[in-house]
Design brief:
- Helices cover 50% and strands 17% of the residues.
- The protein contains eleven helices and five strands, in the order ααββααβββααααααα.
- Helix 9 packs across helix 11.
- This is HTH araC/xylS-type domain-containing protein.
- One of its GO terms (molecular function) is sequence-specific DNA binding.
Amino acid sequence: MNGQWNHNKLEELCDFIIEVIKGNFTLQLNPANSGFLEPLIKLLNIMNEELNTLFHHTHSEKSYPQVNLITLFINLNLDIKYISSQSLKYLELEHEPKNLKAIISEKSFLKLEKLFKTLNKNFAKKKLKLDFLNGKGLLFKTQAELHLKNDRVGENEILINAYKIVYQNDRLEKYRKRVHSKKIKYPTRNRSILLQANRELIEKIHTYLLENIDQKFPGMEGLATIFRVSESKIKKGFKHYYGTSIYKFLQEKRLEKAHLLLTETERPISAIAQECGFVSPSHFSRSFKKRFGYSPSDVHRNPK
């Protein structure tokens, strides 16, 4: 359960960062209240507020205020009786929610529950802060006014007008449209599992190469047969995780081992070349000199 919560929270973080990249500085992350992500969430929220202030201060001559209004009717059970199409647009919702709990933060929901328990049903108007959740679970902080209404059958309904003043900027809007035209993706849960499996496979291949460094390399075709995957998957995966090709990696590790054996043992160069997987002493000498700048016979031997 905790692992699933962490995964969902990380997806929410990704959505938030993508919104910031798009130039949307009006949203906030829902607090985690506990766990290792809480400091990061607080930092990102502060960062987005600072970006919003900085951008509109820098381009103040081109910024102008716009009121984003969320309008809906609820009953005393917090069931939504009506929500405007504009509200759905602001909150990026595809379908009308049935209960207010689905679109406000837990903190705001508890605040309303407590308010309704103590509220005089004849109240005219009440002001409070409400944090709405958009379709991606990100916070849309608002100032809200609650008005008591009576419908035709006598059931009390409450009108909620929640608003947020958002500063618009033509330059920022052009940037947003340009970014929106591009698809920004991040790993889904299934893709994350796939990436994990790929990494484990490449780590197994890495271990196999180190354990068989003195053996003749079976070639990419041989590796593909041993691990039952395609050659291209091995090549791309190894390059991705280790930053080099398998051939270069193997050559480097063989030469490192050879250098160590030369400095710490008195074994013949030909025996060391064979133990490190080189096809011949001459091939070993050429590769060694190219890598270290001097030949194996020039190594100062200091056997233990």
